[in-house]
Amino acid sequence: MQGYWVCAILAVITIVTGIFSGHAIALGITGLLFWIGGVGVREHSLYAAATVFATYAVGVVQRPSALGFLIAALLLSNLRATWIASQWKPNSNEGIAPPRLGETWGDKFSDQVPLWLWPKVRIVYYVSSACFLALTAVGLVVLFLRGASVRPY
After folding, report:
1. pLDDT single digits (tens) 43-89
2. pTM of full prediction above 0.90
3. How far apart are CA 4 and CA 38, in angstroms?
4. Domain spans of the chain?
5. Checking phi first, is residue 44 left (phi over 0); if not, alpha (psi -120 to 50) or beta?
């Protein structure tokens, strides 16, 4: 659940940054991919955890900061935890997941929404995040080949 909340908070920060920096569309799409990636992390998707980490790591490489490295470390720990959680055997006594809560708004947002949403958006997320990462890689290659310095938003 921690991974979901990290991705959700990161999505909100990314969207708010986009609004104030004048790049609302680009950072809005990135924020949406972070949030849906968090939904995938909550549902033990290794691909979603890797995609969120890779997307954020590219941004940290472009604009390094201490806070950026801390968040990247949290996302890396999410990737590790998701990998471990995806290996669990649900039929064993140790693999029984705790019941999902739905009493408060926070419970519904972090327990019920991912359970309902992930099966519906999983394929769209796979395709759109792969395209997003491919475009990001092309942009980094172009910047590298031009020898241009990377400018912040």
Report:
1. 888 999 999 999 899 888 888 899 999 999 999 998 998 888 777 76
2. no
3. 4
4. 2-85+99-146
5. left
CA distance 55 to 137: 10
Mean pLDDT taken over the chain: 82
| Cα–Cα distance measured from residue 32 to residue 128, given in angstroms and rounded to the nearest whole number | 11
* Token pair 């669990």 in the structure block, residue: 88
> How many Cα atoms occupy the beta-carbon half-sphere of 116 within 13 Å?
8
100: its two tokens: 């999902």
Q: How many helices (H) and strands (E) does the chain have?
A: 6, 0
Q: How many CB atoms lie within 10 A of CB 16?
A: 13
**CA–CA gap between residue 122 and residue 10 (Å, rounded):** 20
Q: Do 11 and 20 form a contact (C-beta atoms < 8 A)?
A: no
Report how far Cα 148 is from the mean position of its chain's Cα atoms. 28
